[in-house]
Amino acid sequence: MAFSICLLSWSATEYRNQINAADQLINLQASIRWGTNFLLKAHNTSSNTLYTQVGDANRDHQCWERPEDMDTPPTLYKITSSSPGTEPAAEAAAALAAASIVFKGVDSNYSALLLNHSKSVDKYRGSYQGSCPFYCSYSGYQDELLWGAVWLYKASGDNAYLNYASNNEGWSQAANEFSGLLYTRDSSNLQYATSASMILLVYSNILTAARVNGVQCGSVNFSTSKIKDFAKSQVDYILGNNPMKMSYMVGFGSKYPTQLHHRGASLPSIYNHSAKIGCNDGYSTWYTSSKPNPNTHVGAIVGGPNSNDQFTDSRTDYSHLEPTTYINAAFVGSVAALIGQSKEENILFTLADV
User: Fold this and answer.
1) One of 117, 122, 313, 320 is an active-site residue; which one?
2) What are the residue boundaries of the structural domains of the chain, listed by start?
């Protein structure tokens, strides 16, 4: 959640004018505020405590039921001074700091609140690996610390954060989740494609602002236009320009996934089926059904195709059919950049015609 909020906040600051011109800035700010409110509540009990998970994930995964019907234990997990977790704490700090920039000229009191929490949420060093209950992919916390420091510097202007990031940028472990990659792994690969396209588009803007025409990689020069074109190809691929002619965004285009791996989408609404759907009933009746989901989760981007560019629309295939907030969050930045680019090109074409 923190990473998603941070990406959305980055898009809101990087492409504010473009998003505002598309009449979506208020909606984007509302989405960010929803997430930051959640993070604030997770940190409000004590500056030394951050709640990191709600629910027993092992028990939850044994059930396929609607949120309204959930009766599994709402177990709370937290990090404290005695059981630290730098990874989620630093990521939360980055999200709160980035969001504080978004609201600086909109709601100054809320912006200041976010920044204050951001400064205090990550006090104790220690890997989350030892206390993480579930979803514990681990690559060290150095990347989160750099990420958090950079956003804290941008939000506060405090050079201590900039010095920290500058002095530690040479860490031997590469943060390769933000590489310019096209295919990283079979499971939910579009999370890497969306984040890569967002980063490349931001980077091309930086090069343009610095009046640098591209970057040299070995004997090859990648111009800013080539970088943008590659990033755009990722967006186009996701929206249907691919071998399957499949839009991987639900509800977009004429052909898109109909069996999203998502409980709320795959189970009938309480308005159409008011009776409780039990833990096992959801699996036996709806999870294994070959019928399309009764609810269309418009806008959700799924994990995407496999390594052979093939895609089977089956909700049991969670690696390729499950949507995530961080896939969509990165996609927002890419689309916002391309909207701006499209408008600039239209202006140039109009001037050329004149």
Assistant:
1) 313
2) 1-174, 181-354
Cβ-proximal residues to 346 (8 Å cutoff; 6+ apart), any chain: none
Q: Does domain 181-354 have CATH number 2.80.10.50?
A: no
322 catalytic, yes or no?
Answer: yes
- Asked if the 1-174 domain carries CATH number 1.50.10.10, the reply is yes
CA atoms within 13 A on the CB side of 20: 7
Based on the residue annotation, tell me whether 43 is a catalytic residue of this protein. no
From 261, 262, 309, 345, active-site residue: 261
Does the CA dihedral 279-285-290-295 come out positive or negative?
negative
Catalytic residue among 69, 281, 317, 322: 322
pLDDT in tens, the chain (354 residues): 999 999 999 999 999 999 999 999 999 999 999 999 999 999 988 888 999 999 999 999 999 999 999 989 999 999 998 899 999 999 999 999 999 999 999 999 999 999 999 999 988 889 988 878 888 877 788 889 999 999 999 999 999 999 998 888 655 555 554 437 366 777 888 998 999 999 999 999 999 999 999 999 889 899 999 999 999 999 999 999 999 999 999 999 999 999 999 999 999 999 999 999 999 999 989 999 999 999 999 999 999 999 888 999 999 999 999 999 999 999 999 999 998 676 555 433 333 443
- Is 317 annotated as catalytic? no
